[in-house]
């Protein structure tokens, strides 16, 4: 593949001013992927130019076998810098290119995978942000939308999916041709083709033809989950269509679960998922809730991103922040997952606070000079912080006005491109509020304010402190006033507060024993209660009456731990108190994960076993409740330390997933028996069970095991990107620092290579396999310096520097203890 130059914003503006793209006709030949690595594509692009005689280029990262522009031959071979020059444009132009791509196993643009259980081949495409150019020559920028006509040649036993669902299918010479109807005008990053011998399930709900696809070896699991997926999909389409006053306009909505894919992608009408979301064993509540969150997030993109698309990646938040907000908002309103905001507070929002406290923090909206830089913005600031800030905007203008603005926005700009100003103008018109200061404060600044409550002389003051010396942001929030008694914590009154400036007097209301700042979690700020409230929060937080309130108790403790103001033991104390009384299934598993992390990575070495044992005892007590059993046993499998705890785990780990988790824990404790791994491999119907075997073996304090894992991950790239973080968790184990130090150095040396297979691989590798432990005393500094060198992907650079900050905080906490 040619070394490519990233498209700059200036180049995109120049090309958009010159061109209007009418349509792409894509003919993909997948028959060479049945047993080989070759994709052939014939691309026809019809476009007009504002200036006749001008020159432009198409983005192309495949080898050109033949190309003509208006009948004139163009250069063939590998386009220099990934750009095929188009000279002497006419007013109306037709470009025809026959190209071939043989790099089809790296997960960039197109990926060919082989199911290890039956040898079946599956092919998927994914083009965000600029990987469409890997598969077909195109003007690969979001504001040059066009109609797509897609046809596919594939083996006769394969099913093919694309954006428009139904296709005309003909058979000849042992292959099938699938010809799909034209799409509406789409950006180049949302067309899709998926193919393979999928199993297909369909259901008609509320007038929509819904489809689910997965590889054959997962058919029983898909059957088990299908009704829930169909139900969620139907409810989501109905809810969004009603709330946005614009129904999803296609009669068909497909979701394709594919192997070796990272996350999910919002391809219009045909969402592609990693098939890790087809759970191999009966899922926990948290598993189901996370899948619902992803389903509703990708569905929201049909409106935020597909129908209405940002003009340039500066406004990526118009896609991702809105989809992240919408999925939680819709889940609470139209599904059984009514505690979704508490779940997001326990998980993604804590990641956002950590990202915003790191040296790599950035505004939600920022000027991005090129697409490579934009790729580094697919992070916890653009996603969960952006969602939290939108939740604050809803509180600021009111939900009715906010929705009225969205409806007008969609009606005005459907199938076009927009900027921040377009959306804000619609919300201002609907709400009657000037949002110019809000935009500057919340979207164009970085860092989280700290809100500290002070009680003095019978009065209460909320002190806002902003990072970097900037002015505090405007906050609209609630303070819950709670009375503490032997019967628990009782809400006396909820105070609505608007923070403007450094000191805000909190007037009125009962002066409860506990004043819970940011009750209901309406704003994005770190919170420091007054000393009396903090003591109650840490020791009696589990007595609060709401899931969000109880989660705030533990996440406040987590924030204190993260900033070096609380020890891991106090965090575990607080968590045991909260979780022993928790009633919301949404937060049991993620909050247990916080306790496991604190005991495993934040506790001083001398205290690790003791704190892990305390977490294990909590898990054993929770395992008695049927609804908590699975979450509790998963927590136990990460923390079991004593013989009694390990025996309890062995007795209750009956499903393959729990059995693998137990073996991974035994690997960490250097108690793994290889014959147990082989036996479970033989029994487990999961086609990807080999990854769990690798994790168990990798967790051992063994030089041979680490070398085998390193070879699989970094050299052979055999480990799929969607499970890299799981293997990384087993590789970089606390207490194995000396063993992995040499590999930490090898990771540093490999930084330039981590970005050579596109954004998804760079993202998953740099986050999932980051050295959480190991290295000499100055390793973090040298790693950060190496990440800044030329040739390192901006995605890799950003992630390494952010995770360096988290590692520094963990190491400081361990020393302080």
From TrEMBL:
It comes from the Bacteria. The keyword Protein biosynthesis does not apply. InterPro entries: Aminopeptidase_N-like_N (IPR045357), Aminopeptidase_N-like_N_sf (IPR042097), ERAP1-like_C_dom (IPR024571), Pept_M1_aminopeptidase (IPR012778), Peptidase_M1 (IPR001930), Peptidase_M1_aminopeptidases (IPR050344), Peptidase_M1_dom (IPR014782), Peptidase_M4/M1_CTD_sf (IPR027268). Pfam families: ERAP1_C, Peptidase_M1, Peptidase_M1_N. Its EC number is 3.4.11.2. Residues 109-190 form the Aminopeptidase N-like N-terminal domain. Belongs to the peptidase M1 family. This is Aminopeptidase N. It comes from Nocardioides cavernae.
């Amino acid at each position: 593949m040619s070394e490519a130059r990233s498209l700059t914003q200036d180049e995109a503006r120049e090309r958009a001013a010159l061109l209007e793209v009418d349509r792409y006709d894509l003919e993909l030949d997948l028959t060479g992927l049945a047993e080989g690595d070759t994709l052939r594509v014939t691309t026809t692009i019809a476009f007009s130019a504002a200036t006749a005689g001008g020159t432009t280029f198409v983005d192309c990262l495949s080898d050109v076998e033949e190309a003509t522009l208006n009948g004139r031959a163009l250069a063939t071979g590998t386009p220099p810098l990934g750009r095929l020059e188009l000279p002497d444009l006419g007013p109306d132009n037709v470009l025809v290119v026959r190209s071939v791509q043989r790099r089809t196993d790296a997960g960039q643009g197109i990926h060919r995978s082989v199911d290890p259980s039956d040898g079946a081949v599956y092919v998927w495409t994914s083009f965000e942000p600029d990987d469409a150019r890997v598969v077909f020559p195109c003007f690969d920028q979001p504001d040059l939308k066009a109609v797509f006509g897609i046809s596919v040649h594939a083996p006769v036993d394969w099913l093919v999916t694309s954006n428009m669902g139904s296709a005309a299918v003909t058979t000849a010479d042992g292959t099938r041709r699938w010809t799909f109807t034209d799409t509406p005008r789409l950006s180049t990053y949302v067309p899709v083709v998926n193919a393979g011998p999928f199993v297909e399930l369909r259901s008609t709900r509320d007038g929509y033809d819904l489809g689910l696809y997965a590889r054959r070896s997962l058919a029983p699991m898909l059957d088990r989950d299908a009704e829930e997926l169909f139900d969620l999909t139907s409810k989501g389409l109905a809810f969004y269509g009603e709330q946005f006053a614009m129904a999803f306009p296609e009669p068909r909505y497909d979701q394709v679960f594919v192997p070796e894919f990272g996350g999910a992608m919002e391809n219009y009408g045909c969402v592609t998922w990693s098939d890790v979301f087809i759970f191999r064993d009966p899922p926990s509540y948290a598993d189901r809730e996370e899948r619902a969150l992803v389903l509703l997030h990708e569905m929201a993109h049909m409106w935020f991103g597909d129908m209405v698309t940002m003009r340039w990646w500066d406004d990526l938040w118009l896609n991702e922040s809105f989809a992240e907000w919408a999925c939680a908002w819709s889940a609470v309103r139209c599904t059984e997952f009514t505690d979704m905001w508490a779940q997001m507070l326990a998980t993604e929002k804590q990641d956002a606070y950590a990202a915003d406290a790191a040296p790599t923090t950035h505004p939600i909206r920022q000027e991005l000079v090129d697409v490579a830089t934009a790729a580094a913005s697919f992070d916890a600031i653009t996603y969960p912080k952006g969602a939290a800030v939108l939740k604050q905007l809803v509180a600021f203008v009111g939900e009715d006005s906010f929705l009225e603005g969205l409806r007008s926005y969609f009606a005005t700009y459907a199938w076009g491109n927009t900027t921040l100003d377009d959306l804000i103008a619609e919300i201002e018109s609907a709400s009657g509020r000037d949002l110019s200061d809000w935009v500057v404060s919340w979207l164009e600044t970085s860092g989280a304010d700290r809100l500290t409550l002070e009680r003095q002389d019978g009065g209460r003051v909320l002190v806002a402190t902003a990072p970097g010396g900037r002015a505090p942001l405007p906050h609209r929030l609630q303070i819950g006033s709670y009375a503490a008694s032997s019967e628990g914590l009782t809400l006396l009154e909820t105070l609505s507060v608007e923070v403007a400036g450094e000191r805000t007097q909190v007037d009125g209301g009962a002066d409860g024993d506990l004043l819970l700042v940011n009750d209901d979690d309406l704003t994005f700020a770190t919170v420091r209660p007054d000393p009396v409230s903090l003591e109650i929060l840490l020791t009696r937080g589990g007595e609060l009456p709401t899931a969000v309130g109880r989660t705030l108790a533990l996440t406040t403790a987590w924030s204190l731990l993260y900033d070096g103001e609380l020890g891991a033991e106090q965090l575990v104390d607080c968590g045991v108190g909260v979780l022993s009384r928790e009633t919301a299934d949404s937060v049991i598993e993620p909050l247990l994960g916080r306790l496991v992390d604190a005991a495993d990575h934040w506790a001083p070495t001398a205290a690790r076993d003791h704190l892990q044992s305390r977490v294990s005892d909590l898990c054993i007590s929770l395992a008695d409740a049927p609804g908590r059993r699975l979450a509790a046993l998963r927590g136990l499998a990460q923390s079991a330390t004593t013989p009694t705890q390990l025996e309890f785990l062995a007795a209750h780990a009956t499903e393959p997933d729990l059995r693998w988790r137990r073996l991974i824990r035994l690997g960490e404790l250097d108690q793994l028996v290889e014959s147990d791994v082989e036996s479970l491999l033989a029994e487990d119907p999961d086609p990807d069970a080999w990854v769990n075997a690798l994790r168990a073996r990798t967790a051992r304090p063994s030089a041979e095991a680490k070398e085998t894992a390193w070879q699989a991950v970094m050299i052979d790239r055999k480990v799929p990107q969607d499970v890299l973080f799981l293997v990384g968790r087993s590789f970089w184990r606390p207490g194995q620092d000396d063993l992995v130090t040499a590999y930490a150095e090898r990771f540093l040396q490999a930084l330039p290579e981590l970005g050579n297979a596109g954004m998804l691989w760079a993202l998953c590798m740099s986050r999932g396999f980051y050295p959480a432990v190991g290295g000499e005393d100055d390793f973090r500094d040298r790693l950060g310096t190496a990440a800044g060198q030329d040739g390192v992907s901006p995605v890799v650079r950003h992630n390494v520097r952010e995770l360096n900050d988290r590692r520094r905080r963990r190491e400081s906490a361990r020393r302080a203890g």
